[in-house]
Amino acid sequence: MPLRPIDNALPVPTTPERPRKQSKLALPLTKQSDRPVNDENQIPLQSSDATIDYIASEDLKPISDPEARIQSLIEDLDSKNWIKVCESLNDVRRFALFHSSLLFPVLGKVVLVMAKSMKNPRSALCKTSIMAASDIFKAFGDKLLDPSSNSDAFDSLLLQLLLKASQDKRFVCEEADKALNSMVASMAPLPLLQKLKTYVSHSNLRIRAKAAISLSNCVSKMGVEEMEEFGLGELIKMAADLLNDRLPDAREAARSIATCMYEALTKEEEEKKLDVWQSFCQSKLPPIHALSMFKIVS
Known about the structure:
mainly alpha; Leucine-rich Repeat Variant; about 0% strand; elongated; TOG; microtubule binding; TOG array regulator of axonemal microtubules protein 1; ARM-type_fold; ARM-like
């Protein structure tokens, strides 16, 4: 069969080129916070924590009409507008410093609001509530443990202060430390010691350390009679446990507790202070712990 000329060859089938996909334009996502919201409580993002004034206690002024203001205080403290809550917390501080008799009937509710506000992620609201706690301690002291003022509210407040004193935000941490110091300075050491002892064995080592510092400050205010009422054995055992803690603040608090106990127990002794202390430690602690406690003062 004669060969077909090349010019008459059938065309080689070609695969049609696939159309290229059009590249998608990256459209900016609209943040939910950028959309207009029909909410009178919505605060624009431009309103930063800097809009809140942190007023020192000595710069606070009395409320012009405290009887009228107290009627709406609790409702305003429960507002969804965080700036309004901050302003109400500053009013709480004014009530505590200048009109404490009007605040006392609702003190338990106010303390619960302060504890709740400390959980808020807004630093301004958190710090203002901590500052309010300091003024509450100064004004009411041991009355916070009165059953009529809801002592359970105090437990919630104490835990939040220990948590905030343990966190990494420095200005919140420092304010919480001030509040804890105000608490110790304003309250009788023995009932406060009963509250704090729970937290020196807390699973969170930072909370444990902060509680240990407050506990040691309480012990420094106690005489031997109050120590005996609390329990000398329980107190020295707490110090021995804290001496082996992972954080240096807890260990330093343990040394302070031991030193205060040594000075109180040997106050009447003139020449046999170390012997009295050694005998006491050996009677209350295992040998290795007793030796550690003895070395602190020897």
